[in-house]
C-alpha cells in the first residue's frame, strides 16, 4: 500500500502521496489541454482529469507490453469500481501535462492505479482508481497469472500463458 503524509486536518484530512511501492514501474505520458477541455473559467474541466487518468492507465499497459485490447481479447475487463481525484491547481488551455501512473494490487482481486498530473514539474492533481477483473458477462475473476506477473514484477508474460 502507498505511504501518505497528512497535509492539513480539519473536518476532513488531505493526503499527499509520498512514495511509490517498492519496485513499482512509473510511466509518464504527456497530454496537451485542448480548447475543448476547458470550461467557461478558462481552466480544464474537472471531469477531464479522469480521462487523463485513463490515458495514463492505457499507456502504462502499453509500455509494459500488454494492451487493454489484448486483455479484452482474452476475456478480461477492468472496470473502475472507485475513483478519487484531488485537485490542487488548475490546468489551462494549451498546457502540456505529464501524467505519471503506477499500479499495484490492493487486495487479492483489486488493482489500484495511482496518478499524478503535473505541469513543468508542478503537481496539479493526484488521484487513484480501483479496478477489478471481470469476464465478458461481468463476473468477477481472479487476476490471470500473466497480469499478476506483469504488475507485481514488471515482467511481461504472454497473455497466451495459462491463468
Topology:
Layout: E1 3-9, E2 13-19, E3 27-32, H1 48-64, H2 68-73, E4 80-87, E5 96-105, E6 110-119, E7 122-134, E8 140-141, H3 145-153
Antiparallel strand pairs: 1-2, 3-5, 4-7, 5-6, 6-7, 7-8
Note the main attributes of this structure:
single chain, 163 residues, alpha+beta, Thiol Ester Dehydrase, Chain A, six-stranded antiparallel β-sheet, two-stranded antiparallel sheet, 3 helices, elongated
What coarse outline follows from CA principal-axis ratios? elongated
What share of residues are in beta strands?
A: 35-45%
Kindly state the mean pLDDT as a whole number?
84
Largest sheet: 6 strands, antiparallel
How many individual helices? 3
Tell me the domain tally: 1
List low-pLDDT spans. 1-22
CATH architecture: Roll
First-last Cα distance = 25 Å
Secondary structure: helix percent: 10-25%
Instruction: Provide the CATH topology.
Output: Thiol Ester Dehydrase, Chain A
- Gyration radius over CA: 17 Å
Structural class: alpha+beta
Order of SSEs, N→C?
EEEHHEEEEEH
Give me the count of strands.
8
CATH class: Alpha Beta
* CATH homologous superfamily label: Hotdog Thioesterase
Characterize the structure shown.
The chain has helices spanning 48-64, 68-73, 145-153; strands at residues 3-9, 13-19, 27-32, 80-87, 96-105, 110-119, 122-134, 140-141. It has a single domain (3-9, 24-153), classed as Roll (Thiol Ester Dehydrase, Chain A), CATH 3.10.129. It is of the alpha+beta class and 163 residues long. Strand 7 and strand 8 form a beta hairpin. The model is unreliable at 1-22 (pLDDT under 50).
Amino acid at each position: 500500500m502507498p505511504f501518505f503524509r497528512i497535509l492539513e486536518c480539519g473536518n476532513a484530512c488531505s493526503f499527499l502521496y509520498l512514495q511509490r511501492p517498492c519496485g513499482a514501474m512509473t510511466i509518464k505520458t504527456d497530454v496537451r489541454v485542448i480548447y475543448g477541455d476547458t470550461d467557461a473559467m478558462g481552466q480544464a474541466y474537472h471531469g477531464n482529469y479522469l480521462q487523463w487518468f485513463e490515458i495514463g492507465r492505457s499507456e502504462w499497459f502499453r509500455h509494459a507490453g500488454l494492451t487493454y485490447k489484448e486483455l479484452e481479447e482474452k476475456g478480461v475487463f477492468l472496470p473502475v469500481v472507485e475513483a478519487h481525484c484531488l485537485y490542487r491547481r488548475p490546468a489551462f488551455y494549451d498546457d502540456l501535462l505529464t501524467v505519471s501512473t503506477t499500479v499495484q494490487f490492493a487486495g487479492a482481486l483489486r488493482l489500484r492505479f495511482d496518478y499524478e498530473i503535473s505541469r513543468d514539474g508542478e503537481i496539479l492533481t493526484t488521484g487513484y482508481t480501483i479496478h477489478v477483473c471481470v469476464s465478458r458477462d461481468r463476473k468477477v475473476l481472479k487476476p490471470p497469472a500473466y497480469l499478476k506477473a506483469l504488475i507485481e514484477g514488471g515482467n511481461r508474460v504472454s497473455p497466451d500463458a495459462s491463468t
